[in-house]
Amino acid sequence: YSDKPTLVSFFFTECVPCIKEIPDMIALQKANPDGLRVLGISYDKDAAQHRLFLQEKALNYPSALASQPPVKSFLKQLAKQIGPIKSIPVTLLIDRKGQIVFKQLGPIGPEFQAAVVAALQAQ
Question: What is the DSSP string of 13-29?
């Protein structure tokens, strides 16, 4: 994902603030299909529940379970930079160079939108 800014949304399907953010993530992916990648990482334990949630919410971006081996590896690497994910939602914005340029613990706010715009405009 290094050629485009990437938004990583850590969530759980029963987390109310997480669910409220999903339409924003869908809209961002829809508005920027060639300029931004959105990726969900779910802390759900039940893969079937996760799949059903993705269908019900009509996510237009990929979402993976945090318990999957490749995702576990990514989370270990990420923890070296930001520490472990201890609560959700958490949103990260990673620029084209692979640097975390925005980190939001808890629900996203107006500064999130500004960070996305800046990341999309940066070369």
Answer: TT-HHHHHHHHHHHHHH
Residue 96 contacts by C-beta under 8 Å, 6 or more apart in sequence? 2, 3, 4, 5, 119, 122, 123
d(CA 49, CA 36): 27
Cβ neighbours, 10 Å, residue 81: 10
Tell me the pLDDT band of 32, cut-offs 50, 70 and 90: confident
90-94 and 100-105 beta bridge pairing: antiparallel
Q: What is the pLDDT of residues 56-68, one digit of tens each?
A: 999 999 999 999 9
Q: Is residue 64 within 8 Å of residue 40, measured between CB atoms?
A: yes
**Residue 35: pLDDT above 80?**
yes
Spatial separation of the C-alpha atoms in residues 42 and 8, rounded to whole Å = 10
Crossing angle for the helix pair 16-31 and 47-57, to the nearest 10 degrees:
50
> Which has the closest alpha carbon to 104: 117, 123, 91?
91
